[in-house]
Amino acid sequence: MTMLKDEILEILRDDSRISSTEMALMLGKEVAAINTAIKELEDDNIIVKYDTKINWDKTNDTKVEALIEVKVIPQRDRGFDSIARRIYRFEEVKSVYLMSGAYDLKVLIQGDTMRQVAFFVAEKLSTIEGVLSTTTHFVLKKYKDDGVIMEDEPDDRLKVTP
User: Fold this and answer.
1) What is the architecture of the domain spanning 56-142?
2) Does residue 105 contact residue 73 with C-beta atoms inside 8 Å?
3) Which residues of the chain have pLDDT under 50?
4) Domains of the chain, residue spans
5) What are phi and psi of 136, to 5 degrees?
6) Alpha-carbon span 34 to 27, nearest angstrom
7) What angle in degrees, to the nearest 10, is found between the helix axes of 3-14 and 31-43?
8) Looking at residue 115, what is its pLDDT?
9) What integer pLDDT is reported at residue 155 of this predicted model?
10) In what order do the strands lie in the sheet with 93-98?
């Protein structure tokens, strides 16, 4: 991958709404070169989605998120990939990660209620062949998500008085 593409990815990671024109100015390149590089990054499935970070706690949204630790038996000649594919195809599943340590997969899911999440774990996730055990952790509050502080920080500076 070229240095230009690396620089484009760094910029887009911080602000996916930045225009090609602004990026060209920042990098000292032609807009056409930026557009070509971005198209190649998309075609190569390096850029897979442009995302917006939303603080759902400040909305009327009442969705429930849970992180689930999953222990599995890797399948012969397929390892963890086959089970991970079965899991990530469920609509409730937002992310699946292969992990090192005490469990094998970390699954982030979202549901309308705690009961719906519990049903998903009991009826769908834990019944998959090769799943040994699950441990569910409900997300109660997000303080920082993907590098973004999600709450208003108080101004702790001392007031200057005459």
Assistant:
1) 2-Layer Sandwich (3.30)
2) no
3) none
4) 3-43, 56-142
5) -105, 130
6) 9
7) 80
8) 95
9) 66
10) 93-98, 105-111, 64-72, 131-138
How many residues belong to the chain?
162
**Strand ranges for 12-151 from DSSP E:** 64-72, 93-98, 105-111, 131-138, 144-145, 148-149
**Single-letter amino acid, residue 87:** I
SS3 (DSSP) at 150: coil
Q: Are 38 and 45 in contact (CB under 8 A)?
A: no
**How far apart are alpha carbons 31 and 18 in whole angstroms?**
13
Q: What is the pLDDT of residue 1?
A: 76
Q: Decide: 125 and 70 in contact? Cβ < 8 Å.
A: yes
Ramachandran quadrant class, 128 (left: phi over 0; alpha: psi -120 to 50; beta: rest): beta
Lookup result for tokens 């090192």: 100
Tokens of 81: 């990939």
pTM of the model: 0.77
Amino acid symbol at 88: Y
Structure tokens at 10: 């760094």
Instruction: Identify the residue whose tokens are 């190569």.
Output: 44
Quote the Cα angle for 154-160-162, to 5°: 155
- Residue 132 CA to residue 99 CA, distance in Å, equals 15
Cα 80 from chain centroid (whole Å): 20
